[in-house]
From TrEMBL:
UniProt xrefs under SUPFAM superfamilies: FAD/NAD(P)-binding domain (SSF51905)
Signal peptide: none
Residue ranges constituting the FAD/NAD(P)-binding domain according to the UniProt record: 7-312
Region (Disordered): 79-110
Low complexity composition bias: residue spans: 79-92
GO cellular component terms, semicolon-separated: cytoplasm
Name of the molecule in the record: FAD/NAD(P)-binding domain-containing protein
One function term, GO molecular function aspect: electron-transferring-flavoprotein dehydrogenase activity
Domain of life of the native organism: Eukaryota
Entry keyword annotation includes Flavoprotein: yes
Record has Oxidoreductase as a keyword: yes
Family: Belongs to the FAD-dependent oxidoreductase family.
């Protein structure tokens, strides 16, 4: 490795990680410093989650949800995969080091990557202050790290499959079960539950007239434990408009009813006729039950770093030093990463580690692709500023006073404050929007939804981020 190579590792390549990778891969430095990006993503294709529920109900769209990563960082890129996927240039299951000069016992062989950037299809399992360890046992050292691992949702909102073919099969399988079911219970009236109800209603029950019961092909019930749909931060008028539009799509919305679910119940998205009761004793008989609750933040890989922080803090306290903060990296109640508005970890021991997107502890309002994209850009811009200032060299010198002084002198970018609001599509032609407490209902809501998502659920924007045009992957 040339001494002027700066190593940036980005983990997670969805809205936040891809935007960071795209922004950083286009920076031009004046000196001979070479920025090498290693992008680690467990999926073999980008998954366009904004269109997931539409694709799960209208299978023609599902194949378009998976986009290759090969153009994201330009053409000078090596691809390494530990999945047996035809799109990978080679497979790897051995323990490997990327451009690492040290002899840590995690690695048993060393692979020199000559290309400028690298994408690795594997999963991050351990994080350390200067390197990460992947599921395929690769150890990847870094000067700067971007953790953009977002969250997982129950299928079909996000597929659990890592390979494109399996993901398409998963969405098709879901659609087959919806086809078979005469009655469907959707559990949870968050964004995913409401959207799914709208998609199924739009496909099977479209009447435009709530009184035309002959057009109702599927009985759909959406059960929600709270009195507002989507989020408590939204108005009652927002819920009212959604309820009215869902009714026109043949969806019965039941609010303030929490299902009393047996602890061993499994929702596998397969037809299974059963009766579920709410805590108040109300019964729902359905052929298919889809559970949309339970968003899981992906931060398990930070346990190693958290342990290191705790150990260092204990040692520092024992010596009565103030050098290491024990500030939790991850909020123990939400599992989200505590960050500063600059996207750096809030713990001052790690100014070189960033966490943009859904994975961080910014507000619920900010859990959107558009904000994740902006977070990724802020992280990338700040890494650029730090690279230009030679922060990585100062940090590797270990001179704490110099590190602090340099950090304080930098004008790092901060993410913008979010606008309170939401836009929820109900099938391709309807939706409700709200911004700053103003609800756009009726046909205006439908129009705003169409304006925001287009007919392709913002796919063309994602394609352009990944270097493709809509025609190429239609
Ligand atoms: C059904 C649905 C509809 C939505 N509709 C909209 C909408 O219309 N508009 C909007 O703005 N937002 C929408 N959202 C929200 C939006 O999708 C999220 O805010 C956005 O995906 C967050 O992006 P992210 O990059 O932070 O994380 P994610 O999209 O969650 O991506 C995280 C990435 O990291 C990878 N990863 C995770 N863990 C690891 C690991 N350990 N190692 C390697 N890789 C890992 C994952 O495979 C994934 O690719 C919707 C979400 C859903 C589920």
């Amino acid at each position: 490795m040339s001494p002027s190579t700066v190593r940036v590792v980005i983990v997670g390549a969805s809205y936040a990680g891809a935007s960071a990778a795209r922004t950083l891969s286009s920076i031009k430095l004046n000196d001979d410093t070479n920025v090498q990006i290693t992008l680690v993503e467990r999926r073999d294709h980008y998954f366009h989650s904004i269109g997931a529920l539409h694709g799960a109900v209208f299978p023609r769209f599902s194949k378009r949800l998976f986009v290759p990563y090969d153009r994201l960082m330009g053409s000078n890129v090596s691809h390494i995969s530990s999945l047996s996927s035809p799109s990978s240039s080679r497979t790897s299951s051995t323990k490997e080091n990327i451009n690492s000069n040290d002899d840590d016992d995690v690695s048993t062989s060393s692979t020199k990557i000559e290309n400028k950037h690298v994408t690795i299809c594997s999963e991050l399992v351990e994080t350390h202050p200067d390197h990460v360890v992947l599921k395929n046992n690769m150890k990847v050292p870094f000067d700067y790290l971007v953790l953009a691992t977002g969250s997982d949702n129950n299928s079909p909102a996000k597929t659990s499959s890592l390979k494109k073919e399996d993901g398409m099969q998963e969405l098709k399988g879901f659609n087959d079960e919806v086809e078979k079911a005469k009655s469907i219970l959707i559990i949870g009236g968050g964004g995913a539950g409401v959207e799914l109800a709208g998609e199924i209603g739009a496909k099977y029950n479209t009447t435009g007239n709530a009184k035309d019961s002959s057009a109702i092909k599927k009985k759909i019930v959406l059960a929600h434990s709270r009195n507002k749909l989507v989020g408590e931060h939204l108005s009652e008028a927002f819920t009212k408009d959604l309820k009215c539009k869902l009714k026109n799509l043949g969806v019965e919305v039941v609010l303030n009813e929490r299902l009393d679910l047996p602890p061993d119940i499994v929702f596998d998205n397969k037809v299974n006729t059963r009766v579920l009761k709410t805590l108040s004793g109300r019964e729902f008989n359905s052929d298919l039950q889809v559970c949309t609750i339970g968003n899981r933040i992906n931060t398990k890989y930070l346990e190693t770093l958290e342990l290191a922080v705790d150990a260092a803090a204990a040692a520092a306290a024992a010596k009565d030093l103030d050098s290491v903060s024990s500030l939790h990296l991850v909020d123990p109640t939400t599992n989200m990463i505590n960050i500063l508005p600059t996207m750096q970890l809030a713990n001052p021991a790690f100014p070189h580690i960033f966490a943009p997107g859904d994975v961080n502890n910014r507000s619920k309002v900010e859990k959107k692709a558009s904000y994740a994209y902006g977070h990724g850009q802020v992280a990338a811009k700040n890494i650029e500023i730090m690279i230009r200032a030679g922060f990585h060299n100062v940090r590797s010198s270990g001179d704490k006073a110099a590190i602090k002084q340099l950090l304080e002198s930098l004008s790092l970018k901060k993410c913008r404050n979010p606008i309170n609001g939401a836009k929820i599509p109900l099938g391709p032609k309807m939706g409700t929007a709200e911004f700053c407490g103003i609800t756009f209902s009726g046909v205006i809501g439908n129009f705003i939804m169409w304006l925001g998502n287009g007919e392709d659920y913002k796919l063309s924007r994602t394609l352009s981020l990944l270097g493709y045009s809509p025609k190429e992957l239609s």
